[in-house]
Amino acid sequence: MENSVPLRSEVKNKYKWDIDTLYFNKEGVLRDTRKLNEMIEEIQSYKGRLTESADTLYSCLKIVEKASRLCEVMSTYTFMKRDEDNSNVDGQELADLGQKISVEFESAVSFINPEIIAAGEEKINKLIDEKKELKLYKHYIHNILRQGKHILSPKEEKIIAQTGEMASSMVNTFKMLSIVDIKMP
């Protein structure tokens, strides 16, 4: 009896992960990509004025949270779809889309930490006290303040966020070579 790894198409469905609970098809991902791009535009509208009021800070953090969750679902689906069969070009394209939208999202929110730090702990605490809904984000905000000396300027944070695609390219290349292209005896 020869040991070999069966093709995905030969494996019974009960042994495969079911990611169709996230999306039924590529069109669903594309629809949510458009939705996420709209959210990213809205997030960008807060740039430079994030801490001008408690309402502004809360509104921004609320849309960032919603967009982050959507981005996470999209990334999970697109990467898992690729991992179903790394030789499938459609899966590779979806994973590229997931990577691209993740980088765009991270780049879009890169101004938030520097602006919170620039406002300072005293002003941030005052804003949190003004709007009870901001208490939901208190730990998140204080964690940003705590890490203040490690946060870069908004421009530098954006550059770091934009390197996401490049940073994962070596791993993706290795994965494609070792799983798809190089056949082991």
Comma- or semicolon-separated keywords:
185 residues; 66% helix; 0% strand
- Rg, Cα atoms, Å: 21 Å
Shape summary: elongated
The quaternary organization reads as single chain
Count of separate structural domains: 1
**Major sheet size, sense and barrel closure:** none
> What proportion of the residues form beta strands (DSSP E)?
under 5%
Question: Which structural category do the helix and sheet elements fall into?
Answer: mainly alpha
Helix content: 55-70%
End-to-end Cα distance, whole Å, is 16 Å
Instruction: Estimate the mean pLDDT confidence.
Output: 86
Overall number of strands: 0
CATH class: Mainly Alpha
CATH superfamily: Oligopeptidase f, N-terminal domain
Q: What are the segments in which pLDDT stays under 50 over at least 5 consecutive residues?
A: none
The CATH architecture classification is Up-down Bundle
Annotation field: number of helices: 9
Descriptive account of the structure:
The two termini are 16 Å apart. Helix 1 runs antiparallel to helix 2 and helix 2 runs antiparallel to helix 3. The radius of gyration is 21 Å and the shape is elongated. It has nine helices and no strands. With 185 residues, it is mostly helical.
SSE topology:
Blueprint: H1 26-44, H2 54-84, H3 89-108, H4 112-119, H5 121-130, H6 138-146, H7 154-162, H8 164-167, H9 169-181
Give a short synopsis of this structure.
The chain has 185 residues and is an all-alpha fold.
